[in-house]
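hiii so um. not sure if this is the right channel but i have a protein structure encoded as tokens and i wanna go backwards to a sequence. like what aa goes where. can anyone help
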């Protein structure tokens, strides 16, 4: 389907698009009125930096890390549990939104709740709990490191005291005892190093900010343990050399004493390094406290954030419009009716003679008589002109107007076509050939009169079935007359042929309002007239029905000169001309009830 065809399809069904848009908008408004209001309270927390980053901090955290950690802590389960305990009910994490203000160290916490006061209370408690958990988290990072250093300090102090006591009394047994104790310390440090290395190796591939901070702390502790291991191994080498056989003597020249003194110096160096590390941790811990403060306290909002009636109406209207367009496309795929004028020539292979409308300014459909200057009347005149030009040299004296399917408006087309030819000064006879469903006499406001059936049954002569139409010069009607109720056969072809020949003596053009295309009589008429005109109603006549009707006429040799399209379906719901008349009548002072009654008198197309 090309774009122009799609646009044409949507324009033909614009009333359904409008209906879908209106239905969606109404539904959106209903949802907005039904939905429980939701309020949103907002608080902001600043991640402050009280000092410049320095090498004194063994466990440094960048601004990005601090921000990421606090973003995660704000919705962490411990914080939620703490707030829930204070409130006395469980806080729903899905109603909490935590985000960072771009290019700042500010964390924004939004809480949604049906109670505005409760939303503000939850937001403030979350900020308070975040500050507490932040301090606890930072303190815990340094506390673990400090414990390990204090333990190592105690061991180093014990070794120093032991070595100082043994400087005056050196023997092999004391050295071996020192080596045994040193081996135990080295083994303990090795175990700690191995455990830390396993923890670091087992860290997740995509760690959270908190996991990254913990990993950095373990790496710093591992580096410190490697430094201690090197010093302890150096002490072990010295003591091992001291304890070898044949190394005796006393005084400073004694190798044993020199080795012990060297080990003592190394232990003192270890002790000083550990004390320095502990002081650095104390300093970093003191400087890192109170680095999270609440900038803006949450207050109870006055207006809800949901529902948003305007947005709901727009979105629902758009959805309704899309659904309507989708339904139109689906229905179009299953709809086999003729929808656009171009399909007539493409699918039926006959020319398009005209495009008319059988419902408009006329109450009874005779728009050419009651509103001769209207656009609808002009369309019928264009049809008559086209037929006259087409029939020049082909002798169109008798014309059969027949529906291509069911109820396409053949009677109205035939009647208006007869009127416009009479208005051109021609003598025109309009004959109702539909014996089963006569309508011509009603269309012209006449009672049932003698006519075609009476002639066929040899009850009247031709001139006795003529009925002159008042106010339309040159137009004569032949109604159906009273048909025999027990007749089950088709019309007498010879009688009909004789009638048509005689009628041409009294008129320039004989137009026959055809029976339904499924009735046998229609083929009798089609075989006796000079031309056949198919009436097709856009959007209603099925392609298969029109093709079957045309095929039947072609099989009997009937001359189908073309088709006329009736573009105003009887189910058309919106007619802007009718609406304008309604508004005009209201302006003139009529009450709406009376005006509506008059507007509702829309002509119903005859069969």
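sure thing!! here u go:
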């Amino acid at each position: 389907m090309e774009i122009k065809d799609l646009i044409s399809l949507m324009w033909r069904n614009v009333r359904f698009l409008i209906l879908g848009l209106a239905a969606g908008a109404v539904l959106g408004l209903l949802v907005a009125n039904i939905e429980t209001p939701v309020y949103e309270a907002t608080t902001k927390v600043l991640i402050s930096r009280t000092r410049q980053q320095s090498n004194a901090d063994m466990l440094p955290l960048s601004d990005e890390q601090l921000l990421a950690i606090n973003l995660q802590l704000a919705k962490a389960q411990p914080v939620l549990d703490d707030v829930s305990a204070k409130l006395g009910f469980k806080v729903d994490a899905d109603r909490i939104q935590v985000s960072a203000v771009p290019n700042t160290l500010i964390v924004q916490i939004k809480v949604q709740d049906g109670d505005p006061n409760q939303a503000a209370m939850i937001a403030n408690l979350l900020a308070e709990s975040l500050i507490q958990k932040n301090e606890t988290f930072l303190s815990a990072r340094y506390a673990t490191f400090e414990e390990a250093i204090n333990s190592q300090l105690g061991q180093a102090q014990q070794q120093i005291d032991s070595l100082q006591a043994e400087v005056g009394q050196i023997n092999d047994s004391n050295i071996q005892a020192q080596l045994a104790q040193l081996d135990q310390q080295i083994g303990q440090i090795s175990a700690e190093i191995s455990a830390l290395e396993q923890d670091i190796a087992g860290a997740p591939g995509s760690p959270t900010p908190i996991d990254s901070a913990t990993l950095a702390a373990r790496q710093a502790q591992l580096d410190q343990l490697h430094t201690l291991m090197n010093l302890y191994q150096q002490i072990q080498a010295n003591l091992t050399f001291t304890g070898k056989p044949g190394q005796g003597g006393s005084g400073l020249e004694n190798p044993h004493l020199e080795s012990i003194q060297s080990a003592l110096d190394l232990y003192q160096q270890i002790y000083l390094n550990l004390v320095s590390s502990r002081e650095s941790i104390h300093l970093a811990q003191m400087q890192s406290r109170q680095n999270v403060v609440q900038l803006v306290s949450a207050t109870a909002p006055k207006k809800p954030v949901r529902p948003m009636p305007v947005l709901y109406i727009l979105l629902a209207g758009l959805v309704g419009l899309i659904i309507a367009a989708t339904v139109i496309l689906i229905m179009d795929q299953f709809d086999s009716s003729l929808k656009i004028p171009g399909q007539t020539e493409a699918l039926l292979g006959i020319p398009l003679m005209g495009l008319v409308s059988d419902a408009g300014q006329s109450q009874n459909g005779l728009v050419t008589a009651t509103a001769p200057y209207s656009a609808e009347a002009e369309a019928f005149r264009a049809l008559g002109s086209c037929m006259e030009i087409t029939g020049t040299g082909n002798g169109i004296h008798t014309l059969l107007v027949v529906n291509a399917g069911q109820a396409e408006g053949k009677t109205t087309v035939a009647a208006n076509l007869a009127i416009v030819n009479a208005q051109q000064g021609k003598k025109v006879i309009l004959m109702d050939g539909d014996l089963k469903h006569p309508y011509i006499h009603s269309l012209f406001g006449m009672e049932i009169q003698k006519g075609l059936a009476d002639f066929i049954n040899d009850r009247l002569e031709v001139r006795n079935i003529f009925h002159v139409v008042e106010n339309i010069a040159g137009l004569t009607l032949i109604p159906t007359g009273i048909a025999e109720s027990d007749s089950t056969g088709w019309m007498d072809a010879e009688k009909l042929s004789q009638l048509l020949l005689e009628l041409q003596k009294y008129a320039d053009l004989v137009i026959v309002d055809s029976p339904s295309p499924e009735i046998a009589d229609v083929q009798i008429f089609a075989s006796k007239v000079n031309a056949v005109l198919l009436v097709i109603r856009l959007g209603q006549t099925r392609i298969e029905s029109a093709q079957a009707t045309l095929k039947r006429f072609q099989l009997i040799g009937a001359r189908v000169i073309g088709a006329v399209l009736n573009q105003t379906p009887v189910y058309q719901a919106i007619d802007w001309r009718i609406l304008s008349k309604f508004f005009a009548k209201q302006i003139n002072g009529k009450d709406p009830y009376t005006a509506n009654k008059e507007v509702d008198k829309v002509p119903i197309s005859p069969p």
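oh and The mean pLDDT is 78.
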